[in-house]
Design brief:
Layout lengths: L1 E8 L5 H14 L3 E9 L11 H14 L3 E4 L5 H11 L2 E3 L1 H12 L3 H22 L1 H6 L8 H40 L3 E7 L5 H9 L16 E6 L5 E6 L9 H6 L1 H8 L3 E7 L5 H14 L7 E6 L1 H4 L4 E4 L5 E5 L8 H31 L1
Parallel strand pairs: 1-2, 1-3, 3-4, 5-7, 5-8, 8-9, 9-11
Antiparallel strand pairs: 6-7, 10-11
Helix pairs in contact: 1-4, 4-5, 5-7
């Protein structure tokens, strides 16, 4: 499907990088982004987001190039989306809908599919309720008596029932995860979760550590379903390593909420390996975005090691950096070439061994308290 990409610069953040990301997102969704139209505004237009002049410019480009889709690098209100479709005469997608579509294509496990469907229905529900209120206000005008309102109520009721059923399924899955984690806790297995911006190379790091062969590709959101593997780390014993969904700026809230079951692995980890694309010019912004999502899901208290990946592309050497307390802060590696992977294994072992010591010390202290 051939599309035009549209982005407005409101003077916030790195606009060019955000547009590049939209290009990659649209390609990940299987769309052919033919051209990009950008502009500057102080604030969005209430009716058409881009304003009537810019909307007409976009409509002309769509007609000239015979395009089928317009993708906006922003979240559009239901009214703006409807108004734009009327002017542009093609289907309009906003950033949230595009990400939801990619997730729907990529989800493989039953749990992933349930989470995506829930997020899509919640997104659709806002469109249905806000987008159709004009029917309620008219109360039975010509052609709007009875069936129009009845259909709307039916749609709402069916949506509500389906959302309720999906939430029930997710709660059941969360309980299963909790049982598995308790079993891991009883066996004192140190758990590590890979987190990071989408396409930072988490799955490649995971594969290089576990030889698991998890799906890894140079595209956004290649991984949606959490994969866990047990690996033996010498003196530190067994460690469970989990690969998780990537984060992105302005990740739709419906997705963060729906993927809470998947992200539970992250919340309950003993250590986070925060994988960073060392070659990205906006890596510091991406680190900030990931930390914001971690805070949102309640995982900001877990110790982190920053894993600067893709050092071969960034022209850096493998090394370990420590803070003033001699704790490992950063490990520089290339998961693709394997350079520095021994340093990363060593860093995980060091954290795991220290954790075992702390647990052991706590147990001794507790037993002394009991005897006292």
């Amino acid at each position: 499907m051939r599309a035009v990409l549209i982005g407005l610069d409101f003077g916030k953040g790195n606009f060019a990088t955000s547009l590049d990301e939209l290009f990659l997102l649209s390609q990940s969704a299987g769309v052919d982004p033919v051209t990009t139209i950008s502009g500057k505004r102080a604030s969005p237009d209430a009716a058409l987001f881009v304003g009537s002049g810019k909307a007409q410019e976009i409509a002309d480009v769509i007609a000239d190039l015979d395009l089928e889709l317009a993708i906006f690098n922003h979240a559009l209100s239901p009214a703006q989306q409807r108004n734009l479709e009327r002017v542009l005469k093609v289907r309009v997608l906003d950033r949230t809908s595009l990400i939801l579509d990619i997730f729907a294509q990529r989800a493989k496990s039953h749990e992933g599919k349930v989470q995506v469907e829930l997020a899509q229905l919640q997104h659709l529900a806002t469109r249905l309720i806000r987008g159709w209120t004009h029917l309620e206000r008219q109360k039975g005008g010509i052609g709007l008596r009875g069936p129009g309102e009845t259909q709307l109520e039916t749609d709402r009721r069916l949506l509500g029932l389906r959302v309720k059923a999906l939430r029930g399924q997710l709660q059941k899955l969360q309980r299963q995860h909790a049982t598995q984690r308790r079993a891991r806790g009883r066996s004192s297995t140190f758990s590590v979760s890979l987190v990071g911006y989408t396409n930072a190379g988490k799955s490649t790091v995971f594969n290089s550590m576990t030889k698991a062969g998890a799906y890894a590709a140079d595209q956004l959101f290649a991984t949606l379903d959490t994969t866990s593997r047990r690996i033996y780390m010498g003196e530190a014993g067994n460690v469970v390593l989990s690969d998780t969904v990537g984060f992105i700026r302005e990740l739709p809230h419906q997705l963060v909420a729906a993927f809470r079951a998947t992200l539970e692995e992250t919340i309950h980890a003993d250590l986070l390996l925060h994988v960073v694309d060392a070659a990205s010019p906006v890596r510091m912004e991406q680190i900030e975005q990931v930390n914001m999502v971690l805070k949102e899901i309640g995982a900001d208290h877990i110790p982190q090691i920053l894993v600067w990946n893709k050092i071969d592309a960034a022209g850096l050497e493998p090394r370990v950096e420590r803070d003033e307390y001699d704790k490992i802060q950063r490990v520089f590696i290339s998961a693709r070439t394997g350079s520095g992977s021994d340093l990363l294994r060593g860093a995980i072992s060091e954290y795991a061994a220290a954790s075992v010591q702390t647990v052991g010390q706590t147990s001794v202290d507790d037993s002394q308290d009991v005897h006292a």
